[in-house]
Amino acid sequence: MGSAVIRKIGLTGGIASGKSRVAEILAGMLDCVHVDADELCRQLLQPHAEGWLKFSSEFGLTYFAENGSINRPILRKKLFADEDFRQKVNNVIHPLVKGVIIAQMDHIIESDTNSKVLVEVPLLFEVQWENLFDTVVVVYADYETCLNRLMERDGVARREAIRELESQLPLSEKVIKADHVIDNSGVLTDTNIQVEHLAELLSRNRGHNSRARTRD
Questions:
Q1: Is the pLDDT of residue 211 over 90?
Q2: For residue 205, what pLDDT is reported?
Q3: Domain assignment present for 196
């Protein structure tokens, strides 16, 4: 296949695979803007923001604190326990997030013809947004590593951690779909070496066709 200019980089992974850390390191090495879909979601759910208004209209006040903000612990518990509810929430919020991502990417690219933008999207493959990007990076870690990190990070029991991990597409399937894979199962030094190699590759500004699967 032919080559294509790499401007829009999508980065995903699994819960506790370390995607946010890798995204920050890679964006720093590439000297590019890092857009975080989770942060956009939080902004959209601020009181009286567009997402907040649509969420409250759809689901009422059950998941709101007294000050009008989303009660995140209660909402998170419900999201991971109820797949149908999770899908309904995604149907409300994801189109808004997607619109903001597209607008931000377009603005960044149009402002500087040599710029790149890295967008971190936890559910990139689940929502089938891969075609928004020129290349997709998956941050991988083995299942037990993710499980242990999640229990330690969030202070949740093993059963709850397993339920959260299994709410997403398995990382083994995301790896198959990826253009580039960073294995973050080990120590940070090993991860940094992989990210540096990928940054050098992407800095050349050209790579394989966006849907031609390659590995690092």
A1: no
A2: 63
A3: yes
Q: Do the beta carbons of residue 198 and residue 137 sit within 8 Å?
A: yes
Decide if 131 is inside a domain.
yes
CA–CA separation, 59 and 54 (whole Å): 9
Domains contained in the chain, number = 1
Are 102 and 114 within 8 A, CB to CB?
Answer: no
Q: Are strands 206-208 and 3-5 parallel, antiparallel or unpaired?
A: antiparallel
117 membership: H or E segment, kind and range: strand 117-120
Q: Report d(CA 2, CA 129) in Å as an integer.
A: 22
Domain of residue 87, CATH code: 3.40.50.300
Q: What is the pLDDT of residue 61?
A: 87
Q: What percent of the chain has pLDDT over 70?
A: 93
- Asked whether the beta carbons of 12 and 121 are under 8 A apart, the reply is yes
End-to-end CA distance of the chain: 18
| pTM of full prediction above 0.85 | yes
Q: Distance between CA 69 and CA 64 in Å, rounded?
A: 6
Domain with 187 in it: 3-208
72-90 pLDDT, tens digit each: 889 988 998 899 999 999 9
The yes-or-no verdict on residue 213 having pLDDT over 60 is no
Burial class (CB in 10 A: 0-12, 13-18, 19+), 187: exposed
